[in-house]
Specification:
The structure is a homodimer. The first copy, chain A, has helices at about 5-10, 20-25, 40-50, 75-85, 95-100, 110-130, 140-170; strands spanning about 55-60, 65-70, 90-95. Chain A is mainly alpha-helical. The N and C termini of chain A lie far apart (about 60 Å). Strand 3 of chain A pairs antiparallel with strand 3 of chain B. Chain A binds a DNA duplex through helix 3.
Chain lengths: ~190, ~190
DNA sequence: ACCGGCATGTAACGGGTTACATGATTTT
DNA sequence: AAAATCATGTAACCCGTTACATGCCGGT
């Protein structure tokens, strides 16, 4: 999904400034599944405005740039519908932490444990945050994504705890990877 | 992780051609967590060669380009270790399917169900594939990532099945979102 | 007969990330 | 006193994706 479509999506649920669009994306159930920086949102909103898919009003602020509240137009709604009709691309996950853990044999001693702990901690935070979301009156799609998100985060936290021992074992016993044969000589 | 580091990682476990690097990444437990196309791998391998982090031998093929088998060097191993010492970036997930489902109210009738079914089916395939991997003799990190992957895919498949009804309900009863008040007039 | 697997490479294109510029108010 | 929040925007940069070029062999 390009950032333009992300913006249309957020605006389809109510008016917002560029700043608020970013916040809503980050804080909602979609938070882990989409991402957009200001460097993409502001140019996207300009393009959207040029196409007539959004309109906006400017409100003067003291000491900071004027706030622009954007609203989606009817043609914007249609464009958003068209975007949703395309076949969704396959999920893409980038996990540097898992990549590193995969090569734990190359990590300095004790580092694997740190990376794993940081990984679990990050997802524990996301899980807490997701649990605290208020879904009162939220539409079905929002609830669905929320539920799937919760399941994923719970699964990760649990799986890391359940398998942590695999890495700890390697740290404690670096000389004999597996089995009893091979190099089992008398000291 | 940039593609150069991905290549070093694969080569740290044994020699391979660019083609094989891509396959190993896709087919191993890391399959869903990293990705690299030929358009990035081949240039990356050239850079790696120029830096002296890999060496290679060329083998003539009939009717296709010469096969180049790459091997990591000692300085390559050190560079890889340095890369692994950096703090891992936070996981990034892009899910167009979940984005679409989030806005199921905008989807054509029945489309939400299709997207959801396709989504579950995709993960069922990944799950099958992951279950069939042979981990005999695999190091701890590989097992760990495999186990976490399995948990995630299982969680997604289960969560989608458990929450499918949320979307089905919306399709079947589009006129009255929730509650009993509001527009409950006598026909 | 046609598609997928094998095998490498280049060039253009696209799009997101990062860094910078500006600055008051509120929270820690 | 320092840091985070609010608020927008530009420009350079990086780097990955896509498309193209080439071509044999085995399976359906």
């Amino acid at each position: 999904m390009d950032v333009k479509t992300l913006c249309l999506g957020v605006l389809s649920r109510g008016e917002a400034s560029g700043y608020e669009i970013k916040k809503q994306l980050e804080e909602g159930p979609l938070g882990q599944f989409c991402r957009a920086g200001f460097g993409s949102i502001y140019p996207a909103l300009n393009v959207l405005g040029a196409k007539g898919w959004v309109t906006w009003s400017e409100f003067p602020q003291n000491g900071r740039p004027d706030k622009k509240i954007y609203r989606i137009t009817e043609s914007g709604r249609q464009a958003f519908r068209r975007a949703l009709r395309r076949k969704p691309a396959a999920d893409r996950v980038h996990s540097e932490a898992l990549f590193m853990i995969f090569f734990s044999g190359y990590l300095d001693v004790g580092r694997a444990a740190d990376v794993v702990d940081g990984y679990a901690e990050a997802y524990r935070r996301i899980l807490d945050h997701t649990r605290q979301m208020d879904l009162a009156g939220a539409p079905a799609g929002c609830r669905f994504v929320h539920a799937v998100g919760l399941s994923i985060y719970e699964a990760i936290v649990a799986a890391v705890e359940r398998n942590r021992h695999l890495l700890a074992a390697e740290d404690g016993e670096p000389a004999m990877p597996r089995g009893k044969g091979k190099s089992g000589a008398v000291s």
